[in-house]
Amino acid sequence: MRFLRNYGPIPTNDNMYDESIQRALKRHKIVPITLPAPLVDRLVENFSGPNPTSHIITGTAGDGKTYHCREVWTALGGDPATWIEGAKVQTLWIGSRSLVIVKDLSELRDDEAATLIPSFAQDVANPQASTSYLLAANHGQLLEKLKSPPPSSAVKRVTAAIEELLVTGTNPDSGIALALSDLSRSPAAEMAMRIIEEVSRHEGWEGCGNCAASASDGGCPILENRRRLIGDAPNDPFKRRLTALIELSERNGSHFPVRQLLALVVNSILGHPDARDGLMSCAEVPTIVQSGRAELASIYRNIFGENLRPSKAEKTELFRKLNAFGIGAGTSNSVDNLLVYGADDPAYADDYARLILSDPVYGATPSYVTAQRSYLEGAESTDRIAFLTVLRSQRQRLFFTIPEELASTYDLWDLTVFRYAGLYLDVAAKIATKHTVPRQAVTMIVRGLNRIFTGMLVQNQDELVLATSGSYSQSKRSPLIDELISVPRRGGEEVAVISDGAGGFCVSVKLVRGTKISPITLYLSPTRFEFLGRVAEGALPSSFSLECHEDLLAFKARLLRETENRRKLEGDDDINDGELMLRFIDLSSDGRALARRLIVRV
Amino acid sequence: MNSLSYRPQLQLRLRNLVFNNPHIMTVLAEDRADDAAWSIWLEKMTETVGGLEKPDFTYLRDHFESFQDFAAVISFLQGSAIEGSSNKRWSSKFVFPFGPNALYEDANVKPQGSVSNDRRFFARTGELLYLMLCRSRDADALRGLLVSRFLENPTPYDSMARALQGEPQPAKAERAGAYLPCSSHPLFDRLAEDWLAILSLPIPAYDAIPHLVTMTGLNIILYQLERAREVLDHEPVRLVCEVVSPKKSVVRDLSADSYQRNNLLPQQAVERFVRRIEETPEWQATIGSDDPVLNAGDILRKTFGWPDSEDDELAPEAGALIDQLADRAISRHKQHFGKIHMTWARAIGLSSRRSSRRVRYAPTDRLLKTLVVCCVDKRLEFRDFLGLLCDRYGIVIGDAQARNFIVTGDADQEDFSDNARRLEERLASLGLLKRLSDSCAYVENPFQRAQAA
C-alpha cells in the first residue's frame, strides 16, 4: 500500500522517478508494475542489427523515457548493477560497435555536452560511424543542449533535422541517420486501461484477504474502489467513460504522461479528504469507516481530485485537465430531476432504484437521503448548500455509472461542458472502423461552418456557403457569395469528414476532380466540434473564446484562396464582356441562403 | 530631397454616392417602378450632392439593371468601408482600398461647394510614410511588390468603384511640401522589411492590409519615440507589455509606468530641442551684446523661423523669449503630434485600459497575431520569439528581456516569467503556437503552415 501511495499526488512523490522506484521495489520485495513498451522491442532490434540508426526519445516529464533507456540497456546485455550506479553517459559494446546511452541529456554539464554533442552530430551524419546513440530528454532540454556547444555546421545540420522531426515527425535530411520517438504522442487512453489492469490486479492485493477492515460492517473503501475499478459486468461503463475523457482531452492537445495516469489510478483508489495528504493508508481506514464518512472516498469524486484541497487539485496538472470537463458542475434537467425528485416521482421510480438505490455505498447513502429530504421539505438555506455539494458528487457518480442504454435518455454528455462529446466519440469510432459517418454530424458541421462563414443564421446544410466580405477575410459579416460548394459529391466537389490518420478526424473540402487542387482540411478537436455544434444549434455561450472563431475564419481564407485558384484553372474571369457579376446572399423565408445575382456593367 | 509633389485623386462622385447619399433608403421604401425610382433619386441626389460643379449621375443607369441592384452595391460598399460607422464627416470616410480607383485624399467640402484639404484627423495621404519607405534600403523590392500585388492586380470590386465614379477625378493642384528630415534611418529599413515580409505571405492582398496598417502604426510610434530619444540622449526605448492577466500584477504597474514615460518623451524632446540653443556660443554671445533681445530674435528666426511676424507680442528679455517659444511649441505639440503615441497605440491594439484606471501597454490578440505573421518566417522557438520582439521593437515581455527591472529589484523574475507564460497560453489559444513539452514551444506562422499543408 505504501508503495502504491507513493505514485499518488503527495508531497514526497517518490515514485515519480524510475531510479527511486527501482530502490523501493528491492526494499519492499514487490513485483513491479510492468507496462507494455512496444518501442523497447523496436529499439533493441535496431541497435542489435547490422545498421543501427541513432535514436532520440523525447516526451513530457513522466512519459517513461528513463524506463525505456533502462530496458534497452538490460535487453542488450548491459549489467543492471552498472545502470543503477547512475552514470550520466553509459557506453555499451555490441560486437565491434558501441552504443552510447544518455538517459537524461539535461543532467549533462555544459562541458560534458560540449564533447558529446559534436561527436554525436558527426556520427549521425557519417554512415560508416561505429558509434550509435540513444538519447533521452524532454523537448526543451534537448534543444537547449543542442544549442549549448559552440555552433558548427554539423551541429546546425542535426539541430535543423531534429527540429523538423519534433514538429512534423518527418526527417527532411536523408543524410542524417536519426530517428526520434515522441512518447507524448502515444495514446494515453489505452495506456490508462493497462495501468488500471496492472494496478487493480496486482498480486499484492492478495495480502488483503485476511485484513480485519475488509471483514467489518462498513467494508474497506480501498477495496470497494478497487472492485469498482475492475468492474463487475463486461459492459461496465466506468472504464469506457474514463477512457472517453482521457481521449477527448488528448484530442484537445493535453497529453497525459504515464506518470500522471499512475497518479490518477492511485488517487482514485486511495483518495479520501480526511486522510493524510488526501490519500488513505491501511491504518487510517478503520477510523474513517467509523466516522461514517466512508462515502467521501467515492472513486467518482477522487477521479477529479476532490479528495485533495482545492488549491492542491488546481495545481496538479492532471486534475486541472480532468476538471476542464466541468463534470459535477454542469447538468441536464433530466439528471437533476432524477436526483432530486426521483425518490417520490413514480415516473422515475424504476431508474431511481436502478441508478441510485442499488448503490448503498456511494449512491443512496444515509447522508444523501437526509440532505435530499431536508431540501425537498424546504429547510434552511444552509442545507441547500450542503445538498448542492452532495448533488455534485452524485452527478459525478452518475457520469461514470449510467449504463449505455440510458445514456441518451439522461443526456449523459450534458453533464460535461462538451455536450457534443458523445457524438464526437461516435464519429471518431465510426471513422476508425471505416463506417459511414453519422449524417447528423455532417449536417451539424456544415451548418455551423455556414453560419460562421456568412455571419448570418443560415439553415443551409447540404451545401457549404462560402461567403466573402469583399474586403478582408476576417470581417464578421460577409454579404457576398463566393461559391456554393455541394456537400454530397458532385462535379468534383465534396465536403466530407475524414480520418486524420491518428485516430481523430477532420473536415475536408474538395473542389475539383483529380489532384490539381488538393483538398482543404481542418482538424476538428473536441473544442472546435463543440463550437460548431453550438453555433449550428443557435446558441453560443460566451465562455467560448474567440480562438475557434479565428481558426474557422482562417479556414475560410484558405478555402477562398483555393476557389480563386479553381477559377483561374478553369479560365473563369471575374469580369466577362465588361460585366461584373456579384452574388449577394438573400435569406429565404425558411432561413436558407440563396444567391441573388446582380450585374454591374463596368 | 523633400521635393515630393503629386496630384492625389478626389473621386468625389464615388464618395457622394457611398457616404453622402441618404436617399436610397427612402426611395426604395416608396416602392416605385424602376424608372420612377431612378428619376426621384436623381433629383434628390442633385440637390444634396457636395463639391461637384455639375452633378450628373444619369450615367449610372447604364451600369445597373435596376435601382435595387444599385442600392445593393452601395450598401455593400458602405458595409465594407473603413470605419464606416464612425461619425466623421462624409468627406473624411474611405471605401475599402480595392484598387487604384478606390483611393483618394481626405477633403473638406464646404456647403457652397468648394473643396479643400484641411487635413484633419492626421489625414494627409501618407506622404511621410511614403518618404520613409522610399528612403529605405529595400525601396526597389517593395515598389515591385506593391505594384504587382495592389496596383496592377486590383480585386474585381475596384471596377465597381470605377463604374460608380466614372472618369478618375484628380485634385486641381499639386500637393507639395512634405518634409521628412532624415535621409535614412534604421527604422525606415525595418519598416520596409516588415512590409516586405507581410506582402510576401501567401494571402490575398486585401488580407495583408490590416497587418500592414498595424505594423506601420507600431513602427511610426517607435520612430517618434526613437527620434525623441536621440534628442534627449536617453537609454533605448522599451515598451513593457503586460499580457493581460486577471489579477493586478507588478508587470501591470511597470507597463503603465513605461507607457507614461514614453508618452511624455516626445514633449520633453520638443522642449529640449528648443532650449538646446541656449548652450550655443552664438547665444552666449548675444546675452553679452548691446541688444540681447534683438540679437536673440535673429538667432531664433534663423534657427526656427520664429518670430516671423510683427504682430506677435515679444518678450522683453532673451531668456523669456526662449520660454515663449518653448511654450508655444509645446502647446501646439500637445494638440497634434503629442497625441500620436496615445491614439495610435490604442488603435493598433498596443495599449489598453482594460481592468485598470491607468493606460498601459497590453497587446491585443490582433496585434499579437500580426507580430507573429510579420516576424516569424516559418517557426521560431518561443524564447527566441520573445528575444526578437525585444531586439526589434523594444517590446519587453519575458524575464530574459526584463533583466534590468529584476536587477534593480522593481520586479521578481517570476513576475515576468508568468507574463511570458500567459503570452504562451494566449498564442496557443490563437493557434499560433505549438507546445512540445514542459519547457519548449514553437511560435508558428499560420500562413506558411497553411501553404505547406
In brief:
The complex is a heterodimer of chains A (602) and B (453). Chain A is α/β, with parallel strands linked by helices.
Strand order, sheet with most strands of chain A: 2-3-4-1-5
Please state roughly what percent of the residues of chain A sit in beta strands, choosing from under 5%, 5-15%, 15-25%, 25-35%, 35-45% or over 45%: 5-15%
Number of helices of chain B: 20
Q: Say how many strands of chain A there are.
A: 13
Low-confidence stretches of chain B: none
Write down the domain tally of chain A: 4
Low-confidence stretches of chain A: none
How would you describe what is shown here?
The complex is a heterodimer of chains A (602) and B (453). With 602 residues, chain A is α/β, with parallel strands linked by helices. Chain A folds into four domains: 2-14 and 187-323, no CATH class; 35-185, Rossmann fold, CATH 3.40.50; 333-415, no CATH class; 424-601, no CATH class. Helix content of chain A is 47%, strand content 13%. Chain A has 26 helices and 13 strands. Chain A has helices at 2-5, 18-28, 38-48, 65-75, 80-85, 110-125, 139-147, 153-168, 188-200, 212-215, 221-230, 237-251, 258-270, 285-290, 299-302, 310-315, 317-323, 333-341, 346-357, 366-376, 381-401, 404-407, 421-432, 439-454, 526-537, 546-569; strands at residues 54-58, 89-94, 97-102, 131-136, 178-182, 463-468, 480-486, 494-499, 505-510, 520-523, 575-576, 579-587, 593-601. In chain A, the strands form four sheets. A five-stranded mixed sheet of chain A has the order 2-3-4-1-5, sandwiched between helices. In chain A, strand 3 (97-102), helix 6 and strand 4 form a beta-alpha-beta unit. In chain A, helix 24 crosses helix 25 (526-537). Chain B is mainly α. Chain B folds into four domains: 8-96, no CATH class; 127-163 and 180-229, no CATH class; 267-338, no CATH class; 364-453, Arc Repressor Mutant, subunit A (Orthogonal Bundle), CATH 1.10.10. Chain B is 54% helix and 6% strand. Chain B has 20 helices and eleven strands. Chain B has helices at 12-19, 23-30, 34-48, 60-63, 67-79, 127-134, 139-151, 157-165, 186-199, 205-232, 250-275, 281-287, 292-304, 318-335, 340-347, 365-375, 382-393, 403-407, 413-429, 446-452; strands spanning 5-6, 108-109, 115-116, 175-176, 239-240, 351-352, 360-361, 379-381, 395-396, 433-437, 440-444. In chain B, the strands form five sheets. A three-stranded antiparallel sheet of chain B has the order 8-11-10. Chain B has a two-stranded antiparallel ribbon with strand order 1-4. In chain B, helix 9 (186-199) packs antiparallel against helix 10 (205-232). The longest helix of chain B has 28 residues, at 205-232. Chain B is globular and about 80 Å long. The mean pLDDT of chain B is 87. Classes of the chains: A alpha/beta (602), B mainly alpha (453). Chains A and B meet through helix 7, helix 26, strand 12 and strand 13 of A and helix 5, helix 8, helix 10 and strand 10 of B.
